[in-house]
Automatic annotation (TrEMBL):
InterPro entries: N_methyl_site, PilW. GO terms for biological process: type IV pilus assembly. Pfam families: PilW. It comes from the Bacteria. Keywords: Membrane, Transmembrane, Transmembrane helix. The chain crosses the membrane at residues 12-31. Coiled coil: none annotated. This is PilW family protein.
Amino acid sequence: MNIKLHKESGITLVELMIAMLLGILLTGGVIQTFSANKLTFNTIEGISRVQESARFTLDTLTREARMIGYMGCMSIDMPIHNTLYAAYQGEFDLSSGVTGYNGGASSWTPTLPTSLSGLSNSPSTGTDILKIFGMSSSGERLATSMPDSSAALKVVSPTSLATNDVVFLSDCEKGAIFQATQVNTNSTSGVDNVVHNQGSGWNETKPLTTDGSSFGEDATVYKLVTKYYYVAPGTGVNSQGNAVQSLYVMENGTVSELIEGVENLQILFGVDTPPADTLANRYVTANNISANDEVVSIRLIITTNSINTATAEGDGLLRRTFTQTVKIRNRGSL
């Protein structure tokens, strides 16, 4: 019986090198595809972030700007008696409604109030600030008529008003601005008292009306609100470890971060110069407004970014600038 012996066989060194090269090429292709897909995903996500931040910012500022000068059923030419001390009347002047601060390289014009400049997370230089003053969106009706203009207001419970709030009281024929020196709630009776002691707090020693009249059950009381919208470093960081710029609002002294990714805010004010025709004749920066009641529209220019890395160029952030012009509904035209 003959037994055939077979020689052991294997791969040569050349074959091994070719196999390794093919493996490297295949692995490189997979890595390249993965990297391209990741960059595409980051780019798409970045574009969405840019659009989302812009949409939210423009919607918020547009809604606020349109309501500038809103006085309920009152019109601007009806008598409004401001009972605050003269030092506070300018800050609580319903005829002004809107103003701004033009951001420079290191400061703003006009000078920022200490409530803003004193913040630990102060506004970013080079960006503008929008100040809006007006009434709260909803008012509270009087539960009973006031026997005289010095009496406390009795409003339907529960009231959202608090002690030291500055409020506006109106019955569509006349109005009064004063500070609530005390608010007494009473859930049992369904009526809360809003006290306005003359000569106390910011109130001068004078009644709510100049002719001795008072306010009936058809009157409504509104809280007055001052809001500052501005850009400042946010509380979070991006994928690169850098602070993210955000849009903030300070409402009656309370600061809130609204949305990340807003890195610049520029504002131009449409001014109706004399002779008045309710149309904006020119658009100027905040420091070139001669009279706030001449502002009939606002042009918002915002720059938003992707927050995280979304492109291989520059610092890795996608950016886009958006512009929107808003008519102030209670004043003029675009």
